[in-house]
Design a protein that fits this description.
By secondary structure, this protein is α/β, with parallel strands linked by helices. The protein contains eleven helices and 13 strands.
Amino acid sequence: MVTMRPFRFAVQATKATSAAAWRDLARKVEDLGFSTMFVADHYLGKGPASREARWPPQYLAPISAMATAAAVTETLRVGCRVFCIDYHLPTVLAKEAATLDLLSDGRLEFGVGAGWSEPEYRAMGIGFEPARRRVDKLAEVIALVKAHWSGEPLEQKGEFVNVTGYSGLPLPVQRPRPPIMIGGSRKRVLSLAGREADIVSIANVPFEKVNDAGLSPEEEAVRRLGFVRDAAGDRAAELDIESSPFFTEVTADAGGALERVATTMRVDPDGLLDHPNVLIGSADEIADRLWQRRETLGVNYVSIQQSQLDSFAPVAARLAGS
């Protein structure tokens, strides 16, 4: 049994065809009662690199999109799920984030990760270091961000971050700092998240019925939660555990929806309904499944895709805050 944190819901938005459409979307997400609007830190448009990365085209860069969404809303939190440390100069990112928190009146959620898409790195001309070095860099960037936001003089010397001789400005509105989200799937980065984050985003688990460790998808999700909680210690009960069921559909035809997922992922539909990254069924069925998953997997913070905004809104309205 894990400690119950109240449910929160976010929308992962990646597309807008005009400024008006993006402003309208942000207002709608707020009006429907979602806690947060997330953007993504991906940059590939249509083309062979995007196909190799197996990632849909990204229309908007994150910082300006977040600022615009915050400017046209009153309570909606804004964040990036998640900033890739290799796509931004760390000192600049720390200041941009503090500025976003100030100008949104304290509504920033700062998501950051070690990067994962080698095809995107290659397409953008960025070297893709081994996972160990990327996580080492992530730890140094997180330390810098926390120090920058403190307002104290910066003196940090490491392998990846070397900053000295000034204090970070502006100070964020949220004190002691905006919540930090760290995402990942492996023990080392999830342990770092358990020690340093306020929100832990647990990456999608594989779709094979049994992985190399002999675990089912649900068992793998439980194992990952264990990495987080072991590292967090006494503060585990204070952490939001976030997940984005990529295949979410509110429908009376669950069987048909599961067949489509099975075709896309080239797997047997049997057992897919219980996969941690699948959320399919009626609004009542999905609500019941989320209660169960919060108990077993710790997930209380659920991000859905932009395309599911309208259909999922009744679920969010029913569970948010409970």
